[in-house]
Write a structure and sequence with these properties.
There is one protein chain. The chain is α+β, with helices and mostly antiparallel strands. It has two domains: about 240 residues, Glutamine Phosphoribosylpyrophosphate, subunit 1, domain 1; about 180 residues, Rossmann fold. Helices cover about 30% and strands about 25% of the residues. A seven-stranded antiparallel beta sheet has the order 3-2-4-1-10-9-11. The protein has a six-stranded antiparallel beta sheet with strand order 5-6-7-8-12-13. β7 and β8 form a beta hairpin. α4 packs across α5, α5 crosses α6 and α9 packs across α10. The structure holds iron/sulfur cluster. Iron/sulfur cluster binds next to α16.
Amino acid sequence: MVSVPPDDLHLDDSAGKPKEACGVFGLYSREAAGELAQRTYFGLYAMQHRGQESAGIAISDGERTLAMRDMGLVSQVFDEQKLASLEGGHIALGHVRYSTTGSASWENAQPEFHGRGDVNVFVAHNGNLVNTAALRRELEEEGFEFESTSDTAAIAACAVGELEEGHSVAEAVLRTMRRLEGAYSVAMVFRDKLVAFRDPHGFRPLCIGKIEGGHAVSSETCGLDIIGAGFLREIEPGEVVVIDDEGLKSYRAESPRRALCVFEYVYFARPDSRFDGREVAHSRQRMGEILAEEAPAEADVVIPVPDSGIMAAVGYSQGSGIPYAEGLIKNRYVGRTFIQPADSMRQLGLRLKLNPLPSVIEGKRVVVIDDSIVRGNTARKLVGLLFEAGAAEIHFRVSSPPVTGPCYYGIDMDTKEGLVGANFTVEEIREQIGATTLAYLSVDGMVAATEQKKSHLCRACFDGEYPITGTAQKFALENAAVADAVVGES
Ligand code: SF4
């Protein structure tokens, strides 16, 4: 039997949750030139949930590109002075990162620059390639040198190689896409063009908006909303969009099947973002309603694990008729960098982030709604806190199915080890977390809540149906470098 990793006191805002890979953002407008850096800042700010390790902005006037990137949140990396120093061009590219392939380091922060001779590109990528190591070897044989260890560098080098051959930008990107396997939603600047493309499965979202005199591209619609851009449409799986002074042109690669990540609906995307015209919040509420039908409970109150469980808890309450209440108060200021409590204060743990409201919980049979259980540690601590606060019973309900497999497509859970749902039965998990009862939403219930066709969604970490074969890629290039060094020494 595989054991779940020991408690950790990693208390970032999403403790116990898988991490999204990245958010990308781009703008093209001569009319709005002069404030593109600022708008990009706000676009990234709206998508901070997609990556908190580093942030970057590049601004181009078609000839010269200025870029700034650093470790930290968008608001830590940029201030007014830095944004002012970037202004001047009519093309902007922005990125927030959480690492999947490649460690969290300055070199791997994006936008990623890659150039050879007079051909150079800036690239912002959300996703994860499954053939990074092999592709990198091929590219090195073609004479490319790399400073970073991210898969994004390989995408950028591929594009440079194709552009050097003299292909048009669209053709160069389509040819690049033939060499890439995995998940990639990309925005790229090449000379006077902003290019956006999405892998043929469309694992990660990417959409286009309209601004005065031009266009915007954004991982999520919330990035468009914040700058007042009108939503135009989603970039289709396998589509390449080229934006320049002539407007927007679209090109297509073949798409074998769509596979938008269903976890975007469950947890990653912001509730106010929209996929196919439907608010994510609506899908989450439906998940709660369906969960109430599939897994009813005799209880007095429904409480969410804030913030991500709120919409599903509202749905569960509506579906079951059990009153909804806020029974856990969240400290919204718990950041990634946190003084680790001394050993004698370990029970502080989750309480730093969530504190129960005894007036809501004491003596009550409580339904607790969380969007997912990945490792199980947070759920166990939470149940402990609620019983301590006087709950009579705790009926833990999860608005997604058990996570039973790794993700190779841009979410940081690339091994089965530590996934509690992959190693224990629901009853065993219930025992571990100490709840009175435990139930999860079914795969079909989750899919129904998205109102998407089942065959149009990736559900691999829930049901094992992987759209493309993958292997763990995180640190693949660092590990390869270590292996090379060891071979070199022997
Ligand atoms: S494996 Fe899971 S997290 Fe990864 S893309 Fe598919 S549904 Fe999303």
